[in-house]
Recover the amino acids of this structure.
């Protein structure tokens, strides 16, 4: 892990240094595939979005964890003034009367609450103090110095129990998805990199074809003076020169567009002139499909998603089962006192016991089988989910196996394409020399040129597919098959960067 971080840091340092030097001079830089991927994983818009989505999931998980910690809360109404005419019943006169009321009230409650995950209940201890000042009359105090209570659902669905099962898995999935996104960014980088690389190769081919067409046309004009070439061939050479000129203009336009797209994806200065270095060196490895499946089942977030879907289905069955009836228990015990002698300390003397017990129930007598239908429906949905998840696991394993097989085969295709590219270039050189010597006509030369260009394009297409398969397997398994180790990431670096960015924003503001 440490060596991997050092390598990546070195890549970024050298790359940034290269950019700085280029900006001071010609603003030209060379860029390899590995450098482009490192920049994209660090600075692209997709990397920024994925990082913030992970941070959001992280704080959601921290919120879940906080639900299982004691909560200290102060509830207070320090000032509540009321002056109004209210209707009240006078028991002495046995009639309702309108009475002018003016009062100033205050209230405070300090409570410590703890959720009980295993039962779904809540235990608490609190203390409160109230004051009523009837303006023009007396001042009264009421206090509960201490009260201990329990609130417990007796038969209801226990959300705390299921959260303890699902929330850690959801957060682990979020971590894996964030890590996997870095490999998806690599896949996206490959697309933009090779799009520009193809345009760069096409531009070089077009430049070379134009130079060759111009040379052949000038040579044809010289041979015409010696009557050693037909007029038909001269026209053909001139037409080839015009086609090469048009092809060069189109290639230059495509190259500029593809370069802009790559620089935009990497969030780099669009005024840079980039020279891509083809990733010709491929790894001499054959991936074992069983190892790939094992690592994918261990690290891929899709497997965690399958596990979560099974838990959700199981949770729905239990929720439907326990929603048929409900009952809850509320118990509290404490000490309290009241006083109307204008002295607050009186409410803390000669305390009296306070007990409260409440049981409430909600039991449907006749619901025409509605609760049973919900329960059966949840069971049926669970069976469907289980069958679907089992099939997804089978399809997942097969997809990994097929991708590994295609990758192992792709290495051979790249080697064959490289050899074909070399042979096509050698054949063209020989054919061009034979044409210059007057041994063959222009048709065979054009055919050799087209074959050379096609072989070159085929080679880089096979090379692109090789790297796509390679990073797709890394994305599936989160495993480095070159160094035979699991890919890893230091999540603390994300928070350190987030804190640093926050501090920089605050200092600017």
């Amino acid at each position: 892990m440490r060596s991997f971080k050092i390598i990546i840091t070195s890549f970024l340092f050298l790359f940034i240094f290269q950019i700085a030097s280029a900006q001071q001079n010609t603003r030209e830089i060379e860029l390899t595939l590995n450098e482009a991927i490192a920049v994209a994983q660090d600075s692209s818009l997709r990397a920024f979005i994925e990082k913030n989505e992970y941070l959001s999931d992280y704080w959601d998980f921290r919120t879940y964890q906080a639900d299982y910690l004691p909560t200290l809360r102060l509830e207070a109404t320090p000032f509540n003034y009321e002056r109004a005419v209210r209707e009240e019943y006078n028991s002495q006169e046995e009639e309702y009367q309108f009475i002018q009321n003016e009062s100033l009230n205050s209230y405070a409650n300090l409570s410590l609450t703890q959720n009980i995950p295993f039962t779904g209940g809540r235990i608490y201890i609190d203390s409160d103090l109230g004051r009523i000042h009837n303006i023009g009359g007396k001042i009264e105090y009421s206090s509960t110095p201490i009260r201990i209570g329990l609130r417990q659902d007796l038969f209801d669905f226990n959300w705390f129990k299921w959260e303890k099962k699902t929330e850690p898995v959801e957060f682990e999935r979020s971590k894996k998805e964030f890590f996997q996104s870095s490999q998806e960014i690599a896949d996206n980088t490959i697309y933009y990199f090779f799009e520009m690389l193809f345009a760069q190769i096409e531009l070089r081919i077009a430049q070379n074809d134009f130079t060759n067409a111009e040379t052949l046309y000038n040579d044809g004009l010289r041979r015409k003076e010696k009557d050693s070439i037909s007029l038909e061939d001269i026209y053909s050479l001139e037409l080839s020169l015009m086609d090469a000129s048009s092809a060069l203009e189109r290639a230059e336009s495509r190259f500029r567009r593809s370069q802009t797209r790559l620089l935009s994806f990497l969030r780099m200065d669009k005024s840079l002139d980039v020279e891509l270095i083809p990733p010709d060196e491929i790894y001499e490895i054959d991936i074992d499909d069983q190892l790939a499946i094992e690592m994918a089942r261990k690290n891929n977030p899709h497997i965690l998603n399958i596990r979560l879907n099974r838990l959700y289905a199981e949770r729905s069955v239990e929720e439907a089962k326990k929603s048929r009836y409900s009952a809850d228990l509320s118990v509290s015990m404490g000490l309290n006192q009241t006083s109307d002698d204008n002295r607050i300390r009186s409410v803390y003397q000669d305390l009296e016991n306070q007990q409260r017990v409440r049981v409430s129930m909600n039991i449907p007598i006749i619901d025409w089988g509605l609760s049973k239908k919900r329960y059966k429906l949840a069971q049926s949905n669970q069976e469907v989910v289980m069958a679907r998840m089992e099939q997804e696991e089978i399809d997942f394993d097969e997809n990994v196996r097929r991708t590994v097989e295609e990758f192992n085969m792709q290495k051979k295709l790249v080697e064959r394409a490289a050899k074909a590219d070399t042979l096509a270039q050698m054949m063209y050189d020989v054919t061009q020399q034979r044409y210059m010597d007057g041994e063959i006509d222009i048709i065979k030369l054009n055919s050799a040129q087209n074959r050379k260009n096609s072989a070159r394009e085929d080679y880089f297409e096979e090379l692109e597919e090789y790297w796509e398969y390679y990073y797709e397997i890394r994305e599936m398994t989160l495993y480095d098959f070159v160094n035979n180790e699991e890919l890893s990431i230091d999540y603390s670096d994300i928070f350190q960067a987030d804190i640093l960015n926050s501090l920089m924003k605050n200092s600017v503001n």
Q: What stands out?
A: The chain has two domains: 2-64+163-307+386-504, 72-116+121-156+327-363. The chain has a mean pLDDT of 84. Residues 421 and 454 are 8 Å apart (CA to CA). Residues 72-116+121-156+327-363 form one domain.
